[in-house]
Amino acid sequence: MYESEVIQEWLKKASNGNHNAAKPPPTPSPLRFSKFFQSNMRILVTGGAGFIGSHLVDKLMENEKNEVIVADNYFTGSKDNLKKWIGHPRFELIRHDVTEPLLIEVDQIYHLACPASPIFYKYNPVKTIKTNVIGTLNMLGLAKRVGARILLTSTSEVYGDPLVHPQVESYWGNVNPIDSAQCSIPIPVFFMVFWVRSCYDEGKRVAETLMFDYHRQHGIEIRIARIFNTYGPRMNIDDGRVVSNFIAQAVR
Ligand code: NAD
Ligand code: UDP
User: What domain count does the chain have?
Assistant: First the structure.
């Protein structure tokens, strides 16, 4: 089909209110089929040194057809979580901040990079927003260039302070972008850092928007998982969330 026909088709679908991508996914990069090709599936996990990411890596590495590349800046993650894979021929670990472009050839991207605990994502709210917005943009640019499928780990926090219980996917949420409601009395900026959470909530909302726009505009195959509070081995004991707080207090 010529490009003009594709555009006509897209306009027809758009005018019928059909929000599905009209473009087929981009074709994989030719480098993907180089003679050094060894695995069937090359998978990038951003944030793979973290709590959930390292468990995902364990699962992906179980499949001998997979080659796994982790990109992480170790802000909240640790090489320790991946120590059993370091040196493995199907595993590669890169110190990389997702707010910078990344040029590699992969088939799938699991984009987890972002601090999940309020203590850490409030520590530098501007960096948290950058990680979610610029980081997701970069991973989508990568997915577009190489024709990879991409999954974003979003969060239940996209519902903000929800007015609907339990939250269904069709609910748009109730997020305060500036957290001003809680700011009826003047407080020093230093203390604000401890409770402002919109950097995370709004960051993930923009990340979801980017995912759907790249899907509709460029035909990228996407997945979004809105994860709710998760706990388990390798979680930081001082993570600051309800389950770890209760357990840590009980142990102490
Ligand atoms: P985590 O903090 O343990 O892991 C996040 C990883 O991302 C860490 O290894 C960290 O070093 C890395 N990272 C952070 N900023 C980065 C950057 N700019 N560039 C590269 N790497 C960076 O958190 P987690 O609990 O494993 O969460 C993983 C994902 O799941 C996050 O996207 C989070 O928002 C989402 N999520 C988690 C929960 C939960 O309950 N744990 C709930 C909802 C959503
Ligand atoms: N990008 C990347 N790796 C790639 C391709 C793109 O990190 O393999 C980044 C690129 O630097 C850009 C972003 O992804 O900042 C969005 O790329 P896209 O091609 O969609 O947009 P453009 O570069 O045209 O603004």
Answer: 1
Q: Does an H or E element contain 109, and which?
A: strand 108-111
* Encoded tokens for 150: 């991409």
Record the pTM: 0.88
Contact predicate 134/114, CB 8 Å: no
State pLDDT tens for residues 201-236: 999 999 999 999 999 999 999 999 999 999 999 998
Look up the domain containing 140 and give its range: 5-251
**CATH number, domain at 201?**
3.40.50.720
User: How many CB atoms sit inside 10 A of residue 117's CB?
Assistant: 18
- C-alpha 168 to ligand 1 mean position (Å): 23
Q: Could you give the CA distance from residue 204 to residue 187 in angstroms, rounded to a whole number? A: 27
Residues 6+ apart with CB under 8 A from 42: 32, 66, 67, 69, 105, 106, 107, 108
CA 97 to ligand 1: nearest atom:
19
* CA 47 – ligand 1 centroid, Å: 6
176: Cβ contacts below 8 Å, ≥ 6 apart: 160, 161, 198
